[in-house]
Specification:
By secondary structure, the protein is α/β, with parallel strands linked by helices. It folds into 2 domains: 3-51 and 350-393, Urease, subunit C, domain 1; 53-344, Metal-dependent hydrolases (TIM Barrel), CATH 3.20.20. Helix content is 33%, strand content 24%. It is built from 12 helices and 17 strands. The strands form 2 sheets. Strands 1, 2, 3, 4, 5, 14, 15, 16 and 17 form a 9-stranded mixed sheet that branches. A hairpin with a 5-residue loop joins β1 (3-11) and β2. The longest helix has 17 residues, at 215-231. The two termini are 22 Å apart. Pfam families: Amidohydro_3.
């Protein structure tokens, strides 16, 4: 197999190296000028090199990206957004392979090479959203990898038949199944969690539960999730998405919830939204509670915002949590890359031999400079394929 050699780049701002790629894998990383053998050579020009970004929480099936502008409507509550989406999505052709493809192109443009996407599964759309996302992903020839979470956006127990659809999605290859506010949406947290954990245990899939409920109600559900995770031996396979309650709790209560999550190996996905309480990220980091960053929806019926740049989400995380030092700023970028490996079932995700050949080049002095400026991606290699060159998308 012919090699590709990416010369004169600075991984994480360190000394210049050459990176030898073999197919979709990094074969070796050597001091610049020392990579031998034949193969196409790409001059990195001394640019900063980072691993491809990982989007740990997306909704690829729901966007109207690439379509005419859609004005915001409906009530600004979780139930209001659900109802508005159900009423309007068919008229906008959601889900569609073309809109999903458009969003994936923007992800690649910004250097995201792996995605964990929730995809709606309900009585109206069935499993069609999953089919649409898989069709769109297949069109990229392996450049971008997407793991699917079958997501019950309209509730579980209050919609008889949804559990069966989630079970079918898991049987058909979804990496995980989702849940949604077991207390405030289904108003029966025990029943929802029993149903979801039953599928996860039977099918060997993970769980990723949207939890918007705040304060003590949210904390109660987090503890229920942690308890079931432990009792069923699903440690490391369960994620809480959003989990706003954790940032709202008093310090002593917060610590008890963190202890439960640490013991159960429950991870966290956040989109670092403005006006929310900061997460106790230091305690989470020190306890090994994984944090992944995501874009959430991109121009969908929940919000008109988003451009697919996970580095901007990392910047939002840094600003929301008051990160200032060089170490802290670098940590925010790690959350968008190396530290998110587990969310897409990778043992390693970095610029090292044996890792997938996902590399992003930016014209930045160092990692911190890249974070605060979010410059355009000069070159993006995804699965060994050059998908962005000189800032221009090639797929």
């Amino acid at each position: 197999m012919a090699h590709v050699i990416l010369t004169n780049v600075r991984p994480w701002g360190a000394a210049p190296v050459d990176i030898v790629l073999s197919g979709a894998e990094i074969l070796s990383v050597v001091p610049t000028g020392t990579a031998g053998g034949e193969g196409a050579r790409l001059d990195g020009g001394g640019l900063l090199a980072l691993p491809g970004f990982i989007n740990a929480h997306a909704h690829l099936d729901k966007s109207w990206w690439g379509q005419p502008w859609v004005s915001y409507g409906g009530e600004a509550t979780t139930q209001g957004r659900i109802s508005h989406e159900r009423a309007e999505r068919d008229g906008l052709g959601i889900p569609s392979a073309s809109s999903t493809t458009a969003v994936l192109r923007e992800f690649l443009r910004h250097g995201t090479t792996a995605v964990r996407s929730h995809v709606d599964v309900d009585l109206g759309v069935g499993l069609r959203g999953i089919e649409v996302v898989r069709e769109a992903v297949a069109g990229f020839g392996g450049a971008i990898e997407v793991e699917i979470v079958a997501f019950p956006q309209d509730g579980v127990m209050r919609r008889p038949g949804v559990l069966d659809l989630l079970d079918k999605a898991a049987e058909a290859g979804a990496t995980a199944i989702g849940g949604l506010d077991p207390a405030s949406i289904d108003r029966d947290p025990v029943a929802q969690l029993d149903g979801l954990f039953g599928i996860a245990e039977r099918r060997g899939v993970g769980l990723d539960i949207h939890l918007h409920d705040g304060g003590e109600l949210g904390a109660f559900q987090i503890e229920l999730i942690a308890q079931r995770t432990l009792s069923l031996g699903l440690r490391g396979k369960v994620t809480v998405s959003h989990g706003f309650a954790l940032g709202e709790l008093p310090a002593d209560r917060q610590q008890r919830v963190l202890e439960a999550c640490e013991e159960a190996g429950v991870s966290w996905a956040t989109v670092a939204p403005v006006r929310t309480a900061p997460l106790p990220w230091r305690g989470m980091r020190d306890r090994g509670v994984g944090i992944g960053l995501g874009t959430d929806g991109i121009r969908d019926l929940w919000s008109p915002y988003g451009d697919g740049d996970i580095l901007r989400v990392a910047l939002n995380f840094a600003r929301l949590h008051g990160l200032r030092t060089d170490e802290e700023l670098a940590y925010a970028v790690e959350l968008a890359s190396t530290r998110a490996a587990g969310f897409v079932h990778r043992d390693a995700h970095d610029i090292v031999a044996g890792a997938r050949a996902d590399i992003v080049l930016l014209d930045a002095e160092n990692v911190q400079d890249a974070l605060v400026r979010s410059p355009r991606r000069q070159l993006v290699v995804a699965g060994g394929q050059v998908v962005v060159q000189d800032g221009e998308l090639r797929v």
